[in-house]
Amino acid sequence: MFRKIKSTVYWIALVANIVAIVALLLVGNVDRLQPAEHPWLSNFGLGFPIVLAINLLFLVFWAVFRFKTIWLPLLGLLICYVPIRKYTPFNIKKEHPVRSIKVLSYNVFMFAIWDFDPDETNPIVDYILKSNADIVCLQETDVYGKHQDNIYKAFRKAYPYHDFVSMPAPGCQHMMLLSRYPILKKEQIKYKSAGNISFAYLINYNNQEVLVVNNHFESNHLSEADKQGYKDMVRAPFEGSTTKTGSERILDKLGRAAITRAPQVDAVAAYVKKHLDKKIPVILCGDFNDNPISYAHKTIANHLTDAYIASGNGPGVSYHQSGMYVRIDNIFCSDDFEPYEAKVDNKIPTSDHYPIYVWLKYRPKY
User: Which CATH superfamily is domain 101-221+244-362 in?
Assistant: First the structure.
């Protein structure tokens, strides 16, 4: 009797493990889906860490109860190596070489000015100035009055080359570029959006033109109630009709945002490709408002290297509020650069995003 029960449990676990592997493979490849055709499914990459955790639990299960079957979860993890590496890369740390460029991207959440008096030291501004980055791409830099005067003054003093851009109402989205290298030209990359923007800059890096693109792609427009609902959904995905209704509403919003975001990303990718065809090195930064297994990320990665995947370690969570913990901030580069020591710095929680930075070593190909 006991042997029969044991055999039944074994086969149930085996089948469940296979289902988990298939789920990991499917969720890990949803970035291939066009959001306009599959608005809900295209956002399932957000659930990748949950499915990955289930597969890791099977690894522990077989290691403890039936070691000779451990090959199954190991095979599953091997098959899904590419999406796993996208979500949580691991690299041997290599010190950045001399004369590398430090690039910082940071959604500063309007510098959280409501928490500070204008004459106080703003920790976000202080962090940026102390980062000693050579190129800084900032998003959500909306700030006014004396706060604006003091922040702009500090940045102008530290960075000889800078640009502050904004969208007209109703979007009123603001971004900044701070650079130690001359800005030769700037251009807005045109796409449809009520407030999100992308700007491209040609800078002179040691007599070499380099294209720097600063992006803030379409936001997901989730309310605080939606974010709380997402947290509840993750904690208890099958608990009650309220959770089901909330999850459907959230998926609808995420789907609509993904549909809007896709042509924005397509426009930027086409712009980048045009410059790559002209042999111009490219650095691309910004808040993608999408996870590492998404159409947005994959579209840019088709042309450029994700500096965090190439040289960072761990999941690198950059958005960290309301129970939504995911890497949505990115730095990409063309293969004219080699990335070193990419990191999402979680030591400064003032914004709802953590900053991401990387060192890039220029290695001319031509």
Answer: Endonuclease/exonuclease/phosphatase (3.60.10.10)
Rounded-to-integer distance, Cα 310 and Cα 90, Å: 9
Q: DSSP string spanning 5-61? A: HHHHHHHHHHHHHHHHHHHHHHHTTGGGS-TTT-TTGGGGGGGHHHHHHHHHHHHHH
Rounded to two decimals, what is the model's pTM?
0.93
d(CA 167, CA 345): 28
Confidence of residue 3 (pLDDT cuts 50, 70, 90): confident
Q: Which residues contact 55 (CB under 8 A, 6 or more apart)?
A: 17, 20, 21, 24, 73, 76, 77, 80
User: CB 29: neighbour CB atoms within 10 A?
Assistant: 16
Checking if the pLDDT of 225 tops 90, the result is no
d(CA 47, CA 281): 34
Predicted confidence (pLDDT) at residue 148 exceeds the cutoff of 60:
yes
* CA gap 215, 197 in Å, rounded: 6
Tokens encoding 222: 């989730």
- CA R_g for the chain: 22
The H or E element that residue 202 is part of is strand 197-205
